[in-house]
Fold this sequence. Notes:
Elements: E1 3-7, H1 11-23, E2 27-31, H2 34-44, E3 48-51, H3 60-70, E4 75-79, H4 84-92, E5 97-100, H5 105-119, E6 128-130, E7 133-136, E8 141-144, E9 147-150, H6 153-164, E10 170-171, H7 172-178, H8 189-202, E11 211-214, E12 218-221
Parallel strand pairs: 1-2, 1-3, 3-4, 4-5
Antiparallel strand pairs: 6-7, 7-8, 8-9, 10-12, 11-12
Helix pairs in contact: 2-3, 6-8
Amino acid sequence: MTCLLxxxxxxxxxxxxxxxxxxAGYEVVTADDxxxxxxxxxxxxxxxxxxxxxxxxxDGWEVLDRTRDLTDLPVLILSGRTSPAERxxxxxxxxxxxxxxxxxxxxxxxxxxxLLRRSNPxxxxxxxxxxxxxxxxxxxxxxxxxxxxxxxxxxxRLLEVLVxxxxxxxxTEQLLDLVWDDPDATGRERVKFAVLxxxxxxxxxxxxxxxxxxxxxxxxxxxTSPSGD
Length: 229
């Protein structure tokens, strides 16, 4: 049974979410503060974390930072902080999705299912080799110019989609559909900040950035080989 880590300090909401996820077929472990969340992260190795930001002790931002130092499991922020700046901060800090309170239960379950589907190793393909780049699905990593870096599930899927469409522009809407399973194209800023995180991870010395932003359209993986083949 897939295990979810629910980090929420409101006891009533925590209980309601636990019932919701349990009825949907998930095993749920809960924490009501940041320290407990990190202990459960080590002890239970969940498949996904649903994270509130306002917590006693370590707040949600600190939990997210420490989680990203340890693992690339999907993190969905569930917060009453609804400003665009907060959503942008969450995505830039490494969250895979951000849903504001109050929320629709059906939408929450759909987002959890989408994140788990994108992170499921059964959906990974074989090694993919491109000029200067090798994707290694069993480690969910990219070897770029001889340097290997681990990627989150979303980052891996994003890079894979761009690489397999080498030389062609993939629109933001297409990426939301293919990577986030979000065909309605909500939360477009997710693509921007996922690409920024990928660029930081692929930055090796003076090597050329293989990810190109095409203004007003989307992104393209470009050929960086000297011959242009």
